[in-house]
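Hi P.,

Sorry for the delay on this. The queue was packed all week, but I finally got your sequence through. Input first:
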Amino acid sequence: MSLLFQHSLRIYWEDTDAGGVVFYANYLKFFERARTEWLRSLGFEQEAMRHQERVMFIVGSTQVKYLRPARLDDWLRITVEARELGRASMVLFQQAWRGETLLAEGEIRIGCVRSNVEAENSPRTSPAAEPLDFKPCRIPASLIEAIENPTKPAQSS
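Then the structure:
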């Protein structure tokens, strides 16, 4: 469906536990960064989409397998590949690599929801009022087109 996207990052102290090993939940952060850069490589900035298209993506589910530890100062390559593309959600397959060693992999389902920028920027009528309703909506057609018909393998550093 889509070409494999790759994003590289360095492991810092803030990513590790006291033993210098990456804390397991941080792989989800690394996957999130790679998804953001993947969208950017396709020409879609998330903040611009939130304001102009009035949509944003939320994570609906994750399933991650941890295979080997990453450590302080490692240089990782995080990949993103669209596996399923629906009208309002998509399933992405992501992996974390150190060189040729696979460290973690997972499937992340993200859903497209309304952003309600106007409600977010207006005063609330009551403290309990929630400006973001997160109602599912269609993924913009231009993004679906970019995912289904990528021009070349993308990479960011």
